[in-house]
Design brief:
The complex is a heterotrimer. By secondary structure, chain A is mainly alpha-helical. Chain A folds into two domains: about 90 residues, no CATH class; about 220 residues, Orthogonal Bundle (MetI-like fold), CATH 1.10.3720.10. The longest helix of chain A has about 40 residues. The radius of gyration of chain A is 25 Å and the shape is globular. By secondary structure, chain B is mainly alpha-helical. Chain B has a three-stranded antiparallel β-sheet with strand order 1-2-3. In chain B, strands 4-5 form a two-stranded antiparallel sheet. In chain B, strand 2 and strand 3 form a beta hairpin. The radius of gyration of chain B is 26 Å and the shape is globular. Chain B starts with a strand and ends with a helix. Chain C starts with 11 loop residues before the first strand and ends in an 18-residue tail after the last strand. Chain C is built from 23 helices and 24 strands. Chain C has an eight-stranded mixed β-sheet with strand order 6-7-8-3-9-10-12-11, with helices on both faces. By secondary structure, chain C is an alpha/beta fold. Classes of the chains: A mainly alpha, B mainly alpha, C alpha/beta. The interface between A and B is large, with 51 and 43 residues.
């Protein structure tokens, strides 16, 4: 397993290099550092000296790729590319455009984000799988038909609606949970309940419908017929045979959910005032803080790849064919 | 009056022309017709299609832009001219649906010099009523009834015309056709189509009549008519939903097929490309790109002729960047399918008959992956309409000056906390979006069932 | 419990069973009508029929496992005193896998891939064991015992394996072990060996026979293979278009089949005896089940059809004591079949095919052909090994001759075909056509050579682009190679080609899905012939078709060869087809040719032990033609790590230490026959021809 892990991390490296180069191009080729400075200083008639000062202050005064005025190794290291992009590989994010240490901010905000994302994912999976199995048990009946209709309606509703309506009903009308905010330690739970609940409910429509088709696909396989021919009860057929096999496409599909988690984090965190990475990014977008957005793009890719590897590992556990081929 | 052609307008009409010409092409080919026949025979699909078309008509009307006079800087669409009254009759601030008075009290100087706190009459909403408190409800009822009668009349004309056409086409007397439609034993579910149309006509005419005299969905903070804004949001939703996939379609098809067919280093490069792109979470990529675009536009403000043009360019760019994030999925799908098709016996047979690679690609591979493209196109639509709202909500979507459901929700985000609570902007935006997305989802389901061979085997 | 209606000696009885398919907004289709069957202890009844006749649905109905759209419309299924169709579902579950067990056609997909085979068998054991026997230790003991009884060695180790670690034959054994877990009285075997190779098929059939002998199990064997029926069944029931048409004792049936359909079916099995004649093919196709009307369902295709056959449904007629037939002919006693044995058609009286008289001039020469597929791992695609699909094959093909390339699945025979056509680029060796070295050609030069060699594939459903018209499919080569660039001329030529293969010109403007399997295969042949090839590689062209349709295609291929003088490289696993069609035979084992010779030599006096085993494993209808069984142990080894020396030595009954060390040389045992085996040289251990029964 260790060898497998090392191989996977090794494979992720060229992708991260690609991401790095891509962000560099996006941030420094379309717009020059001068443009950025102008944007930050906020005045169109800003003087060139003010721009130069700002650039020097934030380390954008260096050449992009090659520093002809430096000597030795510094021709390469004393450049924007090396200082601002390549250093991301060692998670050295540098200072934000407003002068704060990005690495420190991220480390502070990682935990609240995780406290929302992980339970949303896990509870969401459990709820969706259970509901899908229940619907499949009643397949080809009116219950099935009605459920699918409800699911289509659910997934046609904007995620924003779930957030706004959820907050309105749970917080404002029923006063069950605080509307927004965050606290440390166990006190955080009461702030987390609503975002997690909304995250789970918002995912039911698409999740259950997808898993239902996975289960239906499995239920037509030959081995299910074999199990029935053994005299196995329909419940056991579903939970022992079909479920185990459908878990494989479901886990593969989790990869597709990961980017949605980012989207969800962006929305819920800012809406509920939770100091996580999502609200951090959103604030940075609104303040037009390039350094933070750039760091978050890279960090997002890293987290995505980590998620990908974790999914692969769980996938490996679920499928003996892959497990035995890897070991 | 001069015609102004914005880039997205051109692309949108190009798309419509493309769809129509594909329809004419497909009509003569059985294998292309068969799945569509399956689609139009499903009553759900027909109802959904009619609802989507009504959105499409409004969207297209809103995509013909004009400059009313050569000197005017303002660019308006045909739709704007049609709903001129809606567009121009702004109140001062919030007012509830069908209100005749403003939502908040105002200090008014009476004729005798005393000052009073009253709910002032609206400038346009229910302005024709002499005694609003007494007359309003009956006036609304009367106007609605008038609208309904108009709607039913127009509907009857349309239905009779269609049944006449149907009778003429299937060579049967009008009465027989009418009975067949009435009983619901026609191949295409005409009855469902007519019922859907009836609902649309009635709702449409009633709202048209009522909106002449009232703000039927209220007004927003700056007094703009919410009904008008919701209708304007349609075009933005449609553009995002259709152009996004379309913009990236050529790249996805070409690269996906090439990777699957030529394999080797071509495959490696293309795979690397899309793995890298897809490993950046879409929202972040969009955020970064939009941020960069904003910077560029602020620094090069002189390059744009008008605000509309600038907003339009941002919309197109948003489509492009959304396309880049969704492109990888289709590319991967097409690569896998092409890998399979390449090993298909008929491709092997073509190779052994000495058919050139280019011919194999165009004759054997492309036509057999098109259903996949079609399914992706239709399935992606609703997701993109929803995504637009979310992105605009977090300020990385369309230009803030552009009418869109996302912008409506964004500007109304805190209104639920007001006292008295202002619910209509949010509700209107969600409702318009929900109907479109639901119709698109239902339609997409039927299309997928019709095109996906695995699905059709199951029934 | 209901009182038994039927005679007490019947263990299992099916009475008047009918099944229909529910359809949306359309009347239901009756797919099985009025089936009567009965089984006694220790007996094997074969239910014989071609694809789509309703035999598998019947089997599923007996288990009450029909797919949701199919319903039992009436009838009675009686297991001893129990009426199965009247049981509540909970009690039926006790019967399923308990007194009544079933095994399926595809062992590859019939086992759950994520559970160990031990767990899957244990599940069946627990379901049907007495409560006291459900302790884990006892269940495990029973699982081991079951695995042992189906001949799986080292069961304690094997029970922890997952299905993908087992070969097809082993999986079918596991399926049988699972079926035996509940000590069934009746076993329904739905095409249990169709997906397996002949040598494995022989093992599995033998296993079922042994179990039957030991336990008195009654077996309902569902099959389309007449040979399997003849070798394993006691009685048989023939099914056609959802109805039984004949029920008989096996001996009586094969001596004198009574229904016209049975007679034609039996005659359409290719044999060496018929090689100079035409096979009896049944014209037309099975009527679609929603279009059957009153009257005999076979009437459309029957050679002895009479007016009343179209209008009146035939009743059962007694032929002999245990033989009954549903046919009007037997109404007035015995039938004289000679009335319809008309003189053979003119085309049958022909000279023997060219190659048997003319000395072979080599048209195609394959020298030391190797195709290795690299196995790549990791980021930089390191090559860590190779699948040696073809590992040094030598072949020659003369003009107008048919060479059969025979072997079991995975031996590399299809790859040889594709490598000759350069569809798969050879790793080594040469392919020479008319003196031109094909392996060195690239691009345009190769494209121009393509017209000489063409291919016909196994699956006619996958071999045509579903989005093209037949005209464009057949004309594809004419257009690509610039033979008929003009559309009108091309259409003319395509019409001629379709006529040549017996397809009407109306087919031009139709799509492939509108044709039946046999018709599609004809269109595929027309497409290949369009460019006037000299060599046609036929890759199992009939193995996806029913026997009666297979006969049509074989007849067509033979006629075409006589008309056009083309050569066939006929790739197949079906030895009956070989004996009918081929002049020479090459037998392949794990990437190499082990024996090559004239068909008469190889099929009657095989010299390689593998050929002998292969031939003896083929089920044969005629009891007098059966060979001494040479049963092979084990399965085909992996071509990634083939055994050292002679690839066959781990399974060879004659193997000596020498075989594991060196590759055996090619030894000519006659002017035309070559064998790659040491044993032919061992003077006093000379390999006896295995058919000493003759």
């Amino acid at each position: 397993m260790t060898a497998y892990l090392i191989r996977r991390i090794w494979q992720a490296l060229p992708i991260l290099i690609g991401v790095n180069v891509l962000t560099f191009m996006l941030f420094f080729v379309l717009n020059s550092p001068d443009d950025m400075a102008r944007m930050q200083l906020g005045d169109k008639r800003v003087t060139q000296t003010a721009i130069d000062n700002w650039k020097a202050e934030h380390g954008y005064h260096l050449p992009l790729l090659y520093n002809a005025s430096a000597s030795g190794i510094e021709t390469v290291t004393d450049t924007i590319f090396f200082q601002k992009s390549a250093k991301l590989f060692v998670f050295d994010f540098g200072l934000s455009d407003s002068g704060r240490d990005i690495g420190y901010d991220i480390s502070q905000r990682l935990w609240p984000s995780f406290a929302i994302a992980a339970p949303s994912l896990v509870i969401g999976l459990m709820v969706n799988i259970s509901l899908a199995l229940l619907i499949v048990l009643f397949r080809a009946t009116v219950i099935d038909l009605m459920s699918v209709a409800v699911l289509v309606v659910l997934l046609s509703i904007s995620g924003l609606f779930y957030i706004i309506a959820g907050q309105f009903v749970m917080g404002k009308l029923l006063h069950l949970v605080p509307i927004s905010g965050y606290d440390t330690g166990l006190n955080a739970i009461k702030f987390l309940v609503l975002p997690i609940l909304i995250g789970v409910v918002a995912g039911i429509g698409s999740g259950v419908r997808l898993y239902r088709t996975f289960f239906l696909e499995e239920i037509e396989r030959d081995y299910v017929r074999t199990a029935r021919a053994k005299g196995v009860h329909e419940w056991v057929v579903l939970f022992r045979h079909v479920f185990r096999n459908a878990l494989i496409p479901i886990l593969t599909g989790v990869v597709a959910i990961l980017p949605l988690l980012f989207m969800g984090a962006l929305l819920t965190e800012s809406f509920f005032g939770i100091p996580g990475l999502g609200s951090y990014t959103l604030d940075a977008i609104n303040r037009q803080d390039f350094a933070i957005v750039r760091s978050m793009v890279f960090l997002g890719a890293v987290l995505y790849i980590v998620g990908l590897i974790l999914t692969d590992i769980s996938y490996t556990i679920a499928d003996p064919r892959i497990r035995l081929a890897n070991s | 009056m001069t015609l102004v052609i914005l880039t997205t307008d051109a692309l949108l009409f190009l798309l419509v022309i493309g769809i129509i010409s594909f329809g004419i092409y497909a009509a003569r080919r059985e294998h292309l017709r068969a799945p569509w026949r399956h689609v139009v025979r499903s009553s759900i699909a027909v109802a959904a299609l009619i609802i989507c078309s009504s959105y499409l008509i409004i969207g297209l009307l809103d995509s013909i832009h004009l400059r009313t006079s050569p000197t005017a800087t303002q660019v308006v669409s045909v739709f704007d001219l049609w709903c001129d009254s809606l567009r121009t009759r702004d109140e001062k601030t919030y007012s509830a649906p069908f209100a005749t008075h403003a939502l908040a009290k105002e200090t008014v100087m009476q004729a005798d010099g005393t000052v009073m706190r009253v709910y002032p009459r609206l400038q346009y909403g229910g302005a024709h009523l002499i005694d609003p408190v007494h007359d309003r409800n009956s006036d609304i009822l009367r106007t609605a009834l008038l609208g309904m009668i108009q709607g039913l009349f127009a509907w009857t004309l349309v239905v009779l015309a269609v049944i006449q056409l149907f009778a003429w086409h299937s060579r049967q007397p009008f009465n027989t056709a009418l009975t067949a439609v009435w009983r619901g034993d026609t191949d295409i579910p005409w009855r469902t189509a007519f019922i859907t149309c009836a609902a649309l006509f009635i709702v449409g005419f009633i709202s048209a009549e009522l909106s002449q005299h009232y703000h039927i969905l209220g007004t927003d903070k700056v007094g703009g008519d919410v009904f008008y804004q919701s209708l304007k949001g349609i075009r933005t939703g449609l553009v995002i939903g259709t152009l996004t996939t379309l913009v990236m379609l050529p790249a996805a098809i070409v690269l996906g097929i090439m990777a699957g067919y030529f394999r080797g280093w071509v495959d490696d490069v293309i795979q690397y490309l899309y793995t890298t792109l897809s490993s950046i979470p879409g929202v972040l990529l969009i955020a970064a790109a939009i941020l960069m675009l904003q910077t560029y536009m602020t620094n090069h403000a002189e390059d744009f002729n008008s605000l509309v043009e600038r907003a339009d360019l941002r919309l197109l760019f948003l489509c492009l960047i959304l396309g880049i994030t969704s492109w990888t999925g289709l590319c991967r799908l097409l690569r896998g399918e092409t890998l399979k098709l390449r090993q298909a016996d008929y491709v092997q047979a073509a190779l052994s008959l000495g058919v050139r690679h280019s011919t194999i690609l165009s004759r054997h591979i492309l036509p057999n992956v098109l259903p996949l493209v079609m399914i992706t196109l239709v399935l992606d639509f609703s997701g993109l309409v929803l995504a637009e709202a979310v992105l605009s909500y977090v300020n990385i979507g369309v230009d803030p000056t552009m009418h869109s459901w996302g912008n409506m929700i964004n500007s109304a985000r805190l209104e639920l906390a007001r006292e008295p609570i202002v619910w209509w902007s949010l509700t209107a935006a969600f409702l318009f979006m929900f109907i479109l997305v639901l119709a698109a989802n239902l339609f997409a389901d039927v299309v997928r069932d019709a095109f996906d061979p695995r699905m059709s085997n199951r029934r | 419990m209901t009182t038994p209606l039927l005679a007490i000696e019947n263990l299992f009885a099916v009475q008047n069973l009918s099944i229909h398919f529910e359809r949306h907004a359309q009347p239901p289709i009756a797919v099985v009508s009025g089936v009567d069957l009965h089984l006694q202890r220790g007996e094997t009844l074969a239910l014989l029929g071609e694809s789509g006749c309703g035999k598998s649905l019947t089997a599923l109905a007996l288990m009450r496992l029909l797919p949701p759209a199919a319903r039992i419309s009436g009838g009675r299924v009686q297991l001893e005193a129990t009426n199965l169709l009247a049981l509540p579902e909970a009690q039926m579950r006790q019967v399923r896998g308990g007194r009544l067990a079933m095994i399926f056609q595809e062992p590859q997909t019939s086992l759950n891939p994520v559970l160990t085979i031990g767990a899957q068998i244990a599940e069946a054991v627990r379901l049907h064991a007495k409560p006291a026997d459900r302790q884990p230790a006892r269940v495990t003991r029973r699982v081991l015992q079951l695995l042992d009884s189906v001949g799986i060695s080292a069961p304690a180790r094997r029970m922890r394996d997952y299905p993908h670690q087992l070969s097809g034959g082993m999986k079918q054994r596991v399926m049988i072990a699972m079926a035996l877990a509940g000590d069934p009285q009746v076993l329904i075997a739905d095409e249990p060996t169709t997906a397996l190779d002949v040598t494995i098929q022989a093992q599995v059939l033998q296993l079922i026979k042994d179990l039957q002998r030991d336990t008195g199990l009654a077996v309902l064997l569902i099959t389309h293979d007449l040979g399997v029926v003849a070798e394993t069944a006691d009685r048989l029931a023939v099914m056609y278009a959802g109805q039984l048409v004949e029920v008989a004792d096996c001996a009586q049936f094969f001596a004198a089949p009574a229904h016209p359909y049975s007679r034609k079916l039996l005659a359409s099995v290719p044999t060496a005896a018929q090689r100079h004649g035409k096979l009896a093919a049944i014209p037309g196709r099975v009527p679609p089940l929603d279009q059957v009307s009153g009257g005999c369902r076979f009437a459309e295709r029957c050679f002895a059809v009479q007016p009343r056959c179209q209008s009146t449904v035939p009743n059962w007629q007694q032929v002999q004591n245990a033989q009954q037939v549903r046919c009007h002919l037997w109404q007035n006693g015995a039938v004289d079949w000679t009335r319809w044995d008309t003189a053979p058609p003119a085309s049958v009286v022909t000279t023997p095919p060219v190659a048997e008289i003319t000395p072979p001039a080599h048209l195609l020469e394959v020298i030391d052909l190797k195709v290795h597929f690299p196995i790549q791992r990791g980021l930089f695609k390191r090559t860590v090994g190779a699948v040696r699909a073809v590992d040094g094959v030598n072949l020659t093909l003369a003009a107008g001759e048919t060479l059969a390339l025979v072997g079991e699945s995975g031996c590399g025979k299809t790859t040889v075909g594709k490598a000759i056509l350069q569809l798969e680029r050879p790793t080594g060796g040469q392919v020479r056509y008319a003196g031109v070295e094909l392996t060195q050609l690239r691009g345009e030069a190769l494209r121009q050579q393509r017209r000489a060699l063409q291919i016909v594939f196994q699956d006619p459903f996958a071999a045509m682009n579903p989005r093209l018209l037949v005209e464009d499919i057949v004309g594809e080569g004419l257009q690509a190679l610039g033979i008929e660039p003009q559309r009108a001329r091309r259409r003319q030529r395509v019409t001629e080609l379709l006529d040549l293969v017996g397809i009407d010109a109306t087919a031009l403007q139709r799509y492939p899905h509108e044709f039946s399997g046999g018709q599609r295969q004809r269109i595929c042949i027309a497409r290949a012939l369009a460019v006037m090839p000299q060599v046609l590689i036929c890759d199992e062209p009939t193995s996806a078709l029913d026997v009666s349709v297979q006969a049509q295609i074989l007849n067509l291929l033979k006629e075409l060869q006589q008309q056009l003088g083309i050569s066939y490289l006929f790739i197949t696993h079906n030895l009956a087809v070989v004996s009918y069609l081929a002049q020479r035979v090459a037998v392949m084992y794990l990437g190499r040719i082990v024996e090559l010779g004239m068909a008469a030599e190889v099929l009657t006096a095989p010299r390689h032990p593998y050929t002998q085993a292969l031939l003896s494993a083929v089920p044969v209808i005629d009891p007098s033609a059966r060979r001494q069984p040479v049963r092979l142990s084990g399965d085909l080894p992996s071509p990634i790590t083939p055994p050292s020396g002679c690839h066959f030595h781990p399974r060879c009954p004659l193997a000596r230490p020498q075989c594991a060390q060196m590759e055996p040389p090619v030894v000519a045992v006659s002017a035309t026959q070559q064998v790659r085996c040491f044993a032919v040289q061992w003077s006093n251990h000379c390999v006896k021809p295995a058919n000493d029964a003759k």
